């Protein structure tokens, strides 16, 4: 879906389709170099990462396996707390596997930090993280994110997998919502 189909719900487009796809192609090239000769399992975090997973994986010119986790973070309102529950676990045994977590956005990093330690406890060969978007607060957390698409300002964004009340995930762009949408 394109921005004109949401009737002025977007206040500002932060990233166009071209910018998103160009960046994912760059990230895919770096991933190909870094994992050359190694098997690779991409782990997407539902539901926000669906678009990043689909497009990043198709920019790769090599075999990869894909698996998914769904986690829910208990938080007050829109803030995540770092207290996490697995809603859907991996189907794959990741012992001795190279795992790359594919994320849409890292905000506080609390969810991701929990996820990375959970995956590391399963005896993988490696666990790294790739995210399309990162907010400023994420820099304060301990998780080292190897592949970052864009650092964005601290505003709530939708599109390209990211939702507000489950809408806007199918937008091709990433943008901020106009105030009238919230009220
Ligand atoms: P933390 O704070 O643990 O949370 O890094 C990351 C998760 O919070 C959600 N999130 C957003 N979702 N627009 C969204 O649609 C945003 O601007 C936004 N910021 C954080 C998202 O689920 C992410 O995985
Ligand atoms: Mg997410």
TrEMBL record:
Domain (Phosphoribosyltransferase) ranges: 18-164
Enzyme class per UniProt: transferase
Cofactor(s) essential for the protein: Mg(2+)
EC number, UniProt record: 2.4.2.8
Pathway: Purine metabolism; IMP biosynthesis via salvage pathway; IMP from hypoxanthine: step 1/1; Purine metabolism; GMP biosynthesis via salvage pathway; GMP from guanine: step 1/1
Catalytic function, reaction form: GMP + diphosphate = guanine + 5-phospho-alpha-D-ribose 1-diphosphate; IMP + diphosphate = hypoxanthine + 5-phospho-alpha-D-ribose 1-diphosphate
Keyword entries, A-Z: Cytoplasm, Glycosyltransferase, Magnesium, Metal-binding, Nucleotide-binding, Purine salvage, Transferase
Keyword Cytoplasm attached: yes
Coiled-coil regions listed in the entry: none
Pfam families attached to this UniProt entry: Pribosyltran (PF00156)
Cell location: Cytoplasm
Record GO terms (molecular function): guanine phosphoribosyltransferase activity; hypoxanthine phosphoribosyltransferase activity; magnesium ion binding; nucleotide binding
Any Gene Ontology CC annotation: cytosol
GO terms (BP aspect): GMP salvage; guanine salvage; hypoxanthine metabolic process; IMP salvage; purine ribonucleoside salvage
SUPFAM superfamilies registered for this protein in UniProt: PRTase-like (SSF53271)
Family: Belongs to the purine/pyrimidine phosphoribosyltransferase family.
PANTHER family: HYPOXANTHINE PHOSPHORIBOSYLTRANSFERASE, HYPOXANTHINE-GUANINE PHOSPHORIBOSYLTRANSFERASE
The protein, known as: Hypoxanthine phosphoribosyltransferase
Taxonomy of the source species: Bacteria, Bacillati, Actinomycetota, Actinomycetes, Jiangellales
């Amino acid at each position: 879906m394109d921005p004109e189909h949401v009737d002025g719900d977007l206040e500002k487009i932060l990233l166009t389709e071209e910018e998103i796809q160009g960046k994912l192609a760059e990230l895919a090239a770096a991933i190909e170099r870094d994992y050359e000769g190694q098997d690779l399992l991409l782990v997407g975090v539902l539901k926000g990462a669906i678009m990043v997973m689909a497009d990043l994986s198709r920019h790769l010119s090599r075999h990869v396996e894909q698996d998914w986790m769904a986690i829910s973070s208990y938080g007050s309102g829109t803030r995540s707390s770092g207290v996490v529950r697995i809603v859907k676990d991996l189907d794959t045994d990741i012992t001795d596997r190279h795992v790359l977590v594919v994320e849409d956005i890292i905000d506080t990093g609390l969810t991701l930090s929990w996820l990375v330690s959970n995956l590391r406890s399963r005896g993988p060969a490696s666990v790294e993280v790739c995210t399309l978007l990162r907010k400023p607060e994420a820099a304060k957390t301990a998780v080292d994110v190897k592949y970052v698409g864009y650092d964005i300002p601290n505003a709530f964004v939708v599109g390209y997998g990211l939702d507000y009340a489950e809408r806007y995930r199918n937008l091709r762009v990433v943008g901020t919502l106009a105030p009238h949408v919230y009220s």
